[in-house]
Amino acid sequence: MMADRQPQWFHFGPWVFDIDAALKLIATTHHETQQLDVTAWATAYSLHHLDDPHRLAVSLIGPTRDAVDRVYAMSTDLSDPVILGLVRVGDGSPAGLLIDGVHRLYHAWRKGVPHLPAYVLTAEETRAVQHDKLLGPGGTSLVGPSS
Length: 147
Prior knowledge:
Helix 2 (38-44) packs across helix 4. Strand 4 (82-89) and strand 5 form a beta hairpin. The longest helix is centred in the first third of the chain and has 10 residues, at 19-28. The chain has a domain at 32-52 and 68-130: Conserved hypothetical protein from pyrococcus furiosus pfu- 392566-001, ParB domain, CATH 3.90.1530. 24% of the residues are buried. It has five helices and seven strands. The chain is globular. With 147 residues, it is an alpha+beta fold. Mean pLDDT is 79; it is low at 135-147.
């Protein structure tokens, strides 16, 4: 990691995921990459509606229209694995959530790439990099430690 790089966080509702911590966890444990189905995830994230100027509905799990920098997205490295976290929902069963790589997903979807390499974190690993706190001043530090 470059020293001058900003910390990376992924926000989803009340949750904040520490992407730098996820990358450290992946580097120190054995994680094989798996293949992420680009069409299935792009559909789930409603990427096909991002460029529709007449769209009235919003995606419940995907990015908003202004959350994807298309120029940046098209410059991303598709060989760099995305990170899929498993979060426990409702009945406690794990559900997948793309916590790092939405721009790469958009890039792959626009180019018709069928699969992206992905690291899949277990529910326990995902919880270890997940915070239930609001971000503090500056948007990069957490308010107090996670419990």
